[in-house]
Amino acid sequence: SDPYVFYDNLGLGITSTHPIYDYAEGRNVFAGVLAVDYRFEHIGEFLLSAYGDSSTAIAIVEDTEPNYIIGLSTGSPAAKLVLSANNSEPCLITSSQSIPCDPIRIPMSDLATSGNHMDRILAISLGMHKEASYPKDLVTVRETMNIGSGVFLSQSVAYEQPDANLRWRVIVTSPGERSSSDSIELGHPLFGAIITIGAAGILACICLFFVFYRKRTEKIIMYADWRFTSAFILGCSLFNGSTFTLVG
C-alpha cells in the first residue's frame, strides 16, 4: 500500500498483503489474506538520534507531490489530527467533548512556516532542489536575502524500490562556513588575472600621464586643461592599484 497514518499513535507505515490458499479436493481454495504492517517510526527515531544534536538536518519525503513527510531529524511529526469537518483546524484531543477527528499526513511545504528554524530550512531546501530539477551538485540555501542570514549547503538523493512502488527523496542540509577574509590568496584561479590586469592598468595610466605631461605646452593640450586631465589620469592609476587590495 501507499504510506498512510496509523490512528493509534499517528505513526506512518505501509501494509503488505498476500493471499493464502488452502489445498482441498485437488485444487487451491482461497482461505484468506495475510497482512503485515510496516511502521516507519524507527526512521524518524534514527534520524533524530543520529542528527538531532548536530548542525546537519535531514528530511525524507515522498518524491511525488505534495512531498509528504516520511521522517525528519528535527523530531517534527509526519502526521497530525485535524477536525473531520475542517481539515485546516487541529483536533483538540485533550477536550472532554467527543469531536470527530481524522489523521492526515503533513506535506513538506507546511514546514515553511514552522516554529523550528531547521524545519523551515529543510522546506526551503526541498523547494530549491525541485526548482533546479534535483541537481547532483550542492545547492546554496538562504532563509532570507538579508546579509546576516545564514547560508546552508544542501544535497538531495533519490531512494527507490520499483518493485514496492516506493520512491523517496532524501534532503541533507548543513550550514556553510563564512570566510574570515575577502582576499584572494595565492593559488586561487583569479590571483594571476588580478595581478596582471591591475599592473597593466597602472602602467597604461602612467604612460598616458607622461605623454600628456610632455605635450602640455601644445595649444590643444592647454585648451583641455592639462592639470585637471593629468590629475584624472593619475587617479585612474590609483584606481587600478586598488585592485591589489583584493589580493591576500
Chart the SSEs and their pairings.
Layout: E1 4-5, E2 12-24, E3 27-39, H1 41-51, E4 57-62, E5 69-72, E6 79-83, E7 101-105, H2 117-131, E8 139-142, E9 151-161, E10 166-175, H3 191-214, H4 219-223, H5 226-241
Helix pairs in contact: 3-5
Overview of this protein structure:
This protein is of the alpha+beta class and 248 residues long. The protein has two domains: 41-175, Beta-Lactamase (2-Layer Sandwich); 191-246. It has five helices and ten strands; from the N terminus they run βββαββββαβββααα. The strands form three sheets. A five-stranded antiparallel beta sheet has the order 5-4-10-9-8. Strands 1-2-3 form a three-stranded antiparallel beta sheet, with no helix packed on it. The chain has a two-stranded antiparallel sheet with strand order 6-7. Strand 2 (12-24) and strand 3 form a beta hairpin. The mean pLDDT is 83.
**CATH class bucket of the largest domain:** Alpha Beta
Which residues form runs of ≥5 with pLDDT under 50? none
Number of helices: 5
Into how many domains do the coordinates divide?
Answer: 2
Task: Tell me the structural class.
Answer: alpha+beta
Main sheet specs: 5 strands, antiparallel
Return the average pLDDT rounded to an integer: 83
Radius of gyration: 33 Å
CATH topology of the largest domain: Beta-Lactamase
Order of strands in the sheet with most strands: 5-4-10-9-8
Strand fraction equals: 25-35%
